[in-house]
Design a protein that fits this description.
This protein is mainly alpha-helical and about 110 residues long. About 60% of the residues lie in helices and about 0% in strands. It is flat. About 0% of the residues are buried.
Length: about 110
C-alpha cells in the first residue's frame, strides 16, 4: 500500500511541475549541485547504491567510511566552491547586495 502512496505522490509532483511550465526559465545548471548533495544526504551513500546487498565486515569499516563516498562528497563540495568563486560577489551599482532581478533592472535603466 505504501508503494501506491509513493506513486500517487510522485505523479502529483510531476503533474504540478507540468502545470507550472515556463518557456525558458533563467535557472543555473549549478542548482544540480545542492540537489545531488541533498539526494545523497537524504537517501543512501554512493557505495550503498552501487552494492546494495553488501554487509560490512566489521564495525571499523563503518567508522572509516568509504573512499568512494568521500570522493563524491568532496567533489560536490569542490564544484560548489568553484561555482561560488567564479560568480564572485554580486553587488549592485549602489553597493547594495539585493535580489538579482532588482540588480538587472537597475543596470538596464538609463541613468537619470
Amino acid at each position: 500500500m505504501s508503494e501506491l502512496g509513493t506513486l500517487v505522490c510522485a505523479a502529483g509532483i510531476f503533474l504540478l511541475f507540468w502545470l507550472d511550465r515556463d518557456g525558458a526559465p533563467e535557472v543555473s545548471h549549478a542548482l544540480w549541485i545542492p540537489f545531488a548533495w541533498m539526494f545523497l544526504a537524504g537517501s543512501r551513500m554512493v557505495t550503498e547504491w552501487l552494492n546494495p546487498g553488501a554487509e560490512p565486515e566489521s564495525t571499523d569499516v563503518l567508522y572509516d567510511g568509504s573512499p568512494l563516498d568521500r570522493f563524491v562528497i568532496t567533489a560536490l563540495l569542490l564544484v560548489g566552491l568553484a561555482v561560488l568563486l567564479r560568480r564572485g560577489p554580486r553587488v549592485g551599482p549602489d553597493g547594495d547586495i539585493g535580489p538579482v532581478e532588482e540588480r538587472r533592472a537597475t543596470r538596464a535603466d538609463p541613468p537619470a
